[in-house]
Amino acid sequence: MTLIKRYWDRRLVDRRQVCFYILIHILAISTLIIYPSFQGLILVLIGHFLTGCFGISLGFHRLLSHKSFKTSSAIKYLFSLFGTLSLQGGPLSWVGVHRAHHRYDDGRGDPHSMRKGRFFTHIGWAVHKGPNGFRFKNLQRYAADIAQDPILMFMEKYYLLINLVLFLLTCFIMGVVDALYLFPVRIVFTWHVTFAINSYTHSYSKAKEKKFSAIDRPSLAILTFGESYHYNHHKHPNKAHIGYKKGQYDIGYQLLKLFDSLGLVTLKKGST
């Protein structure tokens, strides 16, 4: 009860965010029950590839957070738009939280410290105004470079409106059912795949002992596009190649190699 009182104090929980998460989950589950569709599930996988791979893994994570490769402004903004469509906050929020996570690594100041338990690390932190004393209004100090980019800041400020407009546009072009699969269903799927990187690739016991807690989880590698080789990532956060050990397959990095050969991106020295 002490833990519940401490972590779920009314002063810390963002009720609007709780309602938002519940609403999106209800829409997703209702869609699956009322409109079961094989085509819809294919759309979810395609949407997850665009927003989870190009948007989160390559865009928000390897490019914006760690600068592990270089590319044109057009590709940077396209990847960032896909990341924004994952509905995990805008570029500044995502990058700020992730850099803080690396800086404090399960200590005080890590927005989703594993020391608070697996549920908090998975999704509980996301509905808090200030987990571990971390204040979201101070994200700019962790992502000052993002704050200086007007286009990325437009996505940050209007990411909810961008998603709503594109959802309505998809309803008009493809129909309501396909739009529901491409948005709430796909968003919930990508949410939990992404959040599993926090909750499943860190050891709770090691975190409680204040030890290096990141671990590799090959079982998540395909769905996370190589991101689940988390021990590798925390050891070498600026590498574009996360699954670099023998037998590890990093889909995100293979795509970057392809884009590099086409001249669309430039892999930084030491990032492979």
Report on the structure:
This protein has 272 residues and is mainly alpha-helical. It has one domain. It is 61% helix and 2% strand. It contains 13 helices and 2 strands, in the order H-H-H-E-H-H-H-H-H-H-H-H-H-H-E. Strands 1-2 form a two-stranded antiparallel ribbon. It is globular and about 45 Å long.
Write a concise keyword list for the protein shown above.
single chain; 272 residues; mainly alpha; two-stranded antiparallel sheet; 13 helices; 2 strands; disordered N terminus
Q: What is this structure's SSE topology?
A:
Layout: H1 2-7, H2 15-34, H3 38-65, E1 69-71, H4 73-84, H5 91-104, H6 118-122, H7 144-147, H8 150-174, H9 176-200, H10 204-208, H11 221-224, H12 230-235, H13 251-261, E2 265-267
Antiparallel strand pairs: 1-2
Domain count: the total is 1
Q: In oligomeric terms, what are we looking at?
A: single chain
Shape, please?
globular
Main-sheet strand order equals 1-2
Nearest-angstrom radius of gyration? 18 Å
In helices, the fraction of residues equals 55-70%
Task: Please state the structural category.
Answer: mainly alpha
Low-confidence parts:
1-5
Q: What's the order of the H and E elements? A: HHHEHHHHHHHHHHE
Count of DSSP H/I helices: 13
Q: Terminal Cα separation, in Å?
A: 47 Å
What do the pLDDT scores average to? 91
Q: What is the beta-strand fraction?
A: under 5%
Number of strands: 2
Major sheet attributes: 2 strands, antiparallel
